[in-house]
Structure formats: structure tokens, C-alpha cells
Description:
Layout: H1 5-16, H2 25-31, E1 35-36, H3 41-49, H4 55-62, E2 67-71, E3 77-81, H5 82-92, H6 100-104, H7 110-123, H8 131-138, H9 142-155, E4 158-162, E5 171-175, H10 187-202, E6 205-206, H11 207-214, H12 218-226, E7 230-234, E8 237-240, H13 241-248, E9 260-263, H14 268-271, H15 278-282, E10 300-303, E11 306-316, E12 319-324, H16 331-334, H17 337-348, E13 351-352
Amino acid sequence: MNISKEKISKWLVSEHLEKMKNLSLEEISTLYVGIYSNRPTSWQVVMSRNPNVTLEQAISMENSENLVRIPGMRRSKFIMNKSLACKVFNTFKMDHSKHEWRLKEGNVSLEEYKKQISDIISYTQDEGKSLDNIRKELDIAKESIRSIVNFATYTGDLLRVPTENIWSNRWVYKSTPDNFLNIDINIEETKRELADRYLYQYGPITIKDLSWWMNIGQKEAYSILKNIDSKNVGNDFWIHVNKYEDFENFKNNNRNQDEYKFLPPWDPILMGYSPNSLQRESIGLDNINGYDKSGNGLPIIMFGNKAIATWKIRKNGEQRVFEVDLTKLKNTEQSGLNIAISNWCEKLGVEYFK
């Protein structure tokens, strides 16, 4: 089967963008297993795909009781459906001892944590509380509270809850519902389920991609791929059997090649494939320096099936201002760009100074 960069890039646009244009945040998150919960990624992911969703609707979707925020694959923080979150957390959770360094940052021992966490859980039972509220109510040292709460989110005692500031990653914290995370599951069976979901939405993928996404060894990744509904399509690429015929018959047409899409930081397209992968290369992410030094995906503009620029929104006084790096753009890619940016900024409620 022909697996050219051109075919891969257009397939990615079709699977990740075109097919999601009418979906809700919960539906998108479920397809991806989860999306990064950092704001504004959590609500911009749905707005970048569904043109009919307003900012207010996107925020409302994010506040759904069916969605929770947990540490998931690679211990990154994801927003996902509760039933999936339960499986993901219990599959990738680590023993308390592996997180003790988080407590040490605040000069807190594991014994001290165990004494304090029950009171914190009780205090946050009914609604989310800020760090400051927890600290004052329970008389916890200022230098210790952040470490305690951070540790609690990684061990499953507390969940992160968003604040009213849609641009901020400052959270409030709520106790985890009883019997939500601490359940018995078959780890190997759950890994196969998650890999199957990943393959279905992200495929075609390589063993290295699955290994990176799940944070498991390549030998284990290969074993899992051989035991789920996968099909090898050559060049070490695998695809879900239910997508095989679609991919085989997929045409490199010019559909939506003059359309602009604005993807947020940590978008699933950016963070779903391993570094140096053909998928990243096919849409030109390296050409525009689409990642920071830590490997975090930056906000990008897609023109058709190519990444053409990075963008950001910065605070300027009381306003938020859209900025874009146009240095790597061709003239053909700039045609209509200002209109697209203006429309995007209007949806986000930010300013754009040309």
C-alpha cells in the first residue's frame, strides 16, 4: 500500500479535523481517549474542529459532569469521559513512593500527607476549593499546600476542577467520588482496549508511536498491536481493521486545501505521534518549529494539509491579543489568512492587530 507523506497528511486532516466538525467536546475527547486539560487547549480543541460551536458553548461543554481531569498517559493531565478516566488512571497510576518527590518539594513527609489528606477530602467533598481556601480552612503551611494537593491529584485523592477564568491553568480541587478511581481492573486487558482506541483514531501508527503515546516499551507495544484489531499496511505502519479499506481507497484529492484551521497548544495532532514520526513530518511541523524545547506542541495554523505558522495569544493590559509568526509563509498561503485570523479572533473574543 502506498503510504506517502502526502497521503498521510491529507488522511490526518480528514480523520482529525473534517470528521469531527459536528462533534461535542465529550465526543472528541472520547475518540482521542482524552485531550490535554490545560487551558485553553481543553476548549479550543472543540472550537478548532466544530465551526458551529461558540466560545460559551465550548466552555459549557467543558463543565460537563461526565468529564473529569486526571493524570493519564505519560502522566500528562487529560480531560476525558469518567468511565474511560477510571480505566486510564488505574492502568497508568504509580505507587505513592514514586510521587514522594512532589511532597519533598514542600517539605512534607508521606506520614504528614496521610494525616492531612482526610481533612482535605472532607472539606472538598461538596464543591471545588482553591489552594488558598484549603490552606486557610485547615491551617496548612503556605509552602506545603501546593505540594500536598499536587501529590493528591496524582494518587487519586483529588480531582482538578476549572475556575471561571477560561484562560488560566489555576485550578480548584475536589475530592474524588467514592469507588471512582480505586477499583480492580485487568491492566493488560485495559491496555489492549486503550491501544485499540488509539489505533482507531490515530492510525496509521507505528510501534514507536504506540510505545510513546502509552509510555510503554516497544516490545510490549508490538505485542499489544498483534493482539488487537490491527492490520500492517507496510513500512512498519499499522491501522485498525475497521479503517483499513477507507485508508486503502483514500484519494489524495484537493478537498479543503484552501481552508485554514487554528489548532491550540498540545492539540491531539501535535501530541498524538512520536517525535521524528512521519506523521509530524508529513504536515511540516518541524518546518515551522512547531514544538518548544521540552517537546510541547505549540499553537499552529493549518492551511489545507500543511502546518504553515505558529501563533499565540498574549495578555496586553485588559485585552488578549493574537500574534502570528508569518516569517515562513508563502504568498499562496497568506491569501485570505487575515480574514481567517479575524474570524478566529472574533470567536475567541481577542484582538488582532495586523
